[in-house]
Design a protein that fits this description.
Length: about 170
C-alpha cells in the first residue's frame, strides 16, 4: 500500500490564514448556538434572518477590533489594556444597538422599550466580543512567546557552534 507523503503544517504557520479560519469557526459556532437556541424556543424560521444579521454584525465588528488590537498588541501593557477597556464597551454597545434595532424591526412593538431591548442584548454581545477579545490577545501573545522561544533556541545553537569552533 502506497502512502502519500504528508507533511503536517503548523496551524499558525500562516498567521493570516489561521486568523480567517478561527474567525469562520468562531462566528459559525456562535451562529449555530443562536440557531439551536431559537429553534429550541419554538421561534419561527424567519428568526434565522435575525441570527444571520447578528452574526454578520458581530463578525464585522470583530474585524474592526482586530485592526485596532493589532496596533495595540506591541505597546506597553497599560496602553494595550487601557485602550481595550475603552474600545470593547463601545463595540459591545454598538453591537447591542444594531441587534436591538434589527430585532425591533422584526418584532414590531412588543411593549418593551428600545432601551430595555438593548440592555437585554448587552450580556450576550458582551460575552461574544469579550471572549473574542480574550482569544485574540491570547493567541497573539502565545505566538509572540513561541517566536521569542524559537529565537532563543537559534541563539543558543549559534553560541554552541561558536564554542565548538573555538575549541577546534
Amino acid at each position: 500500500m502506497a502512502v502519500l507523503p504528508f507533511r503536517p503544517i503548523p496551524f499558525f504557520a500562516n498567521k493570516n490564514r489561521a486568523f480567517w479560519r478561527l474567525q469562520a469557526a468562531g462566528w459559525g459556532g456562535a451562529m449555530l448556538l443562536r440557531v439551536m437556541s431559537g429553534l429550541a424556543n419554538a421561534q419561527p424560521l424567519s428568526f434565522l434572518v435575525l441570527v444571520l444579521i447578528a452574526t454578520i454584525t458581530g463578525f464585522s465588528i470583530s474585524l474592526i477590533l482586530a485592526v485596532i488590537y493589532r496596533q495595540l498588541i506591541n505597546r506597553r501593557p497599560i496602553i494595550t489594556w487601557g485602550i481595550t477597556a475603552i474600545v470593547l464597551p463601545i463595540a459591545v454597545a454598538f453591537y447591542a444597538f444594531i441587534d436591538g434595532w434589527v430585532y425591533g424591526l422584526y418584532a414590531g412593538d412588543t411593549g418593551g422599550s428600545f432601551a430595555q431591548r438593548i440592555l437585554g442584548l448587552l450580556y450576550l454581545d458582551a460575552t461574544l466580543l469579550g471572549a473574542w477579545t480574550a482569544l485574540y490577545y491570547m493567541v497573539n501573545f502565545f505566538l509572540q512567546i513561541e517566536e521569542q522561544n524559537d529565537q532563543l533556541i537559534r541563539l543558543e545553537n549559534q553560541a554552541t557552534q561558536a564554542q565548538l569552533a573555538m575549541l577546534r
